[in-house]
Design a protein that fits this description.
There is one protein chain. With about 400 residues, this protein is of the alpha+beta class. It is built from six helices and 27 strands. The relative contact order is 0.15. About 0% of the residues have low confidence. Keywords: Glycoprotein, Signal, Vacuole. One of its GO terms (molecular function) is hydrolase activity.
């Protein structure tokens, strides 16, 4: 072998060694788990790839959704209308709940008593992450139909409520059974004022949701707040990224979804012979967010994006996932690979028994992507997104 061949081999070996050292040491701290040196990954209970729900929207009907309020709301995670039908109200990235009066947006409520100039509006939604724990981040919103009070699940500040005049919300619960909330996510409230809500993790905050999704850590909880006892209790524990919550029309059970690499829709019975029992009623084809019940008693599940084969394989192999999460590759790239490389969105309507009734998609993300909630009102779907700077509205008559 000539000297040229030896030189090329030496150069290749040096480059390989340098790459291995870079990946192993991560000197620029690009890896998604640098803040969690002792992290673990967990096995996900997945159905076979071929058994995932086959229903698709080949017409991409969500492309026909109308974009409203572009640039006026940043990250409108949840959408609510008060008992008089006014609104929408939505929680935004700067920590406020804002209200549309038919002409303009105005501040209605806020969750943090420590707001300052660091909470002022910013050009990019991702600029808020650093101070979310100070400014608050309202996620799930629900009005009590009788009292008109607004209940808020704030990712960092727990479960709160605010009166009909708005202002600073009052904390109701920040822990359950001695365990503080780390990531309060979504909620619903029944006619008696009991609040059902999720705490997504006991270790990861909302700003690390991509890391939590990949770790699939089973520390999430479904909880109930009793206004008479003024305390929260655990209904279901050991959940993987519990997220959206919605009571059935007759309030006999509460539906909730888990949004790890193995996504599913479940119901926890509150009344009847099955009271206290939990059962899976639907396998979800992607990463879900909020769940909302319509007037017919069916459930709309907002799906951030359909899960790809890469995400499915990672769910089956926690050791492989742990190895990949140690590499100097930012979490957002792992997520993009998990959803096929492109941000998109879908919404699925389920019956109370878990039957798929309707699927709406924007598979290329031309109009909507990473949607967080689908609220049905007067024949229209009001669509929120935790990262998009607008609300989308889809006319259901376009699907008839």
């Amino acid at each position: 072998m000539g000297s040229g061949g030896v030189t090329r081999r030496a150069l290749f070996s040096a480059m390989f060694l340098a790459l291995a050292l870079y990946c192993g040491l991560d000197p620029l701290k690009q890896g998604p788990m640098v803040e969690f040196p002792g992290f673990e990954t967990y096995k996900v209970d997945l159905c076979p790839w071929e058994d995932l729900p086959p229903e698709r929207d080949v017409e991409d009907r969500l492309e026909k959704a109308e974009i409203r309020f572009k640039g006026q709301v940043q990250g409108p995670e949840s959408i609510a209308f008060d008992p008089q039908g006014r609104g929408p109200y939505t929680g935004v990235a700067d920590g406020r709940v804002v209200f549309w009066d038919g002409k303009s947006w105005s501040g209605f409520a806020y969750t943090s008593p420590n707001r300052s100039e660091i909470c002022d509006p910013k050009p990019s939604i991702f600029e808020y992450l650093k101070h979310e724990h100070v400014c608050g981040r309202p996620l799930g919103l629900r009005f009590h139909k009788k009292t008109g009070e607004l209940y808020i699940a704030d990712a960092y500040l727990g479960l709160l409520k605010v009166g009909t005049e708005g202002g600073l919300a009052t904390p109701l619960a920040t822990e359950a059974e001695g365990m503080p909330f780390k990531f309060t996510n979504d909620l619903d409230v029944d006619g008696e004022g009991n609040v059902y809500f999720t705490d997504t993790s006991t270790n990861y905050e909302r700003r690390h949701f991509l890391q939590l999704t990949t770790a699939s850590e089973p520390t999430g909880r479904l909880l109930k707040y009793d206004p008479r006892k003024k305390e929260a209790s655990v209904l279901v524990r050991d959940l993987q990224f519990p997220n959206g919550v919605s009571l059935s029309k007759d309030e006999s059970f509460v539906a909730f979804c888990e949004g790890s690499l193995g996504s599913r829709l479940s119901r926890h019975w509150l009344k009847g012979e099955k009271a206290g029992k939990t059962e899976v009623i639907g396998i979800l084809p992607g990463f879900p967010d909020n769940v909302r019940t319509n007037e017919d008693g069916d459930f709309w599940v907002a799906i951030h994006a359909r899960r790809g084969l890469y995400g499915h394989i990672l769910g089956l192999h926690p050791r492989l996932r742990k190895f990949l999460m140690k590499l100097p590759i930012p979490a957002k790239y792992h997520y993009l690979l998990s959803i096929g490389g492109r941000l998109h969105a879908m919404a699925i309507k389920y019956s109370p028994e878990g039957k798929v009734l309707q699927v709406l998609e924007d598979r290329k993300g031309k109009v909507v992507k990473i949607i967080s909630e689908v609220e049905e009102k007067d024949g229209k779907l009001w669509i929120g997104s935790v990262i998009m700077p607008f609300i989308a509205v889809y006319d259901l008559n376009l699907s008839s």
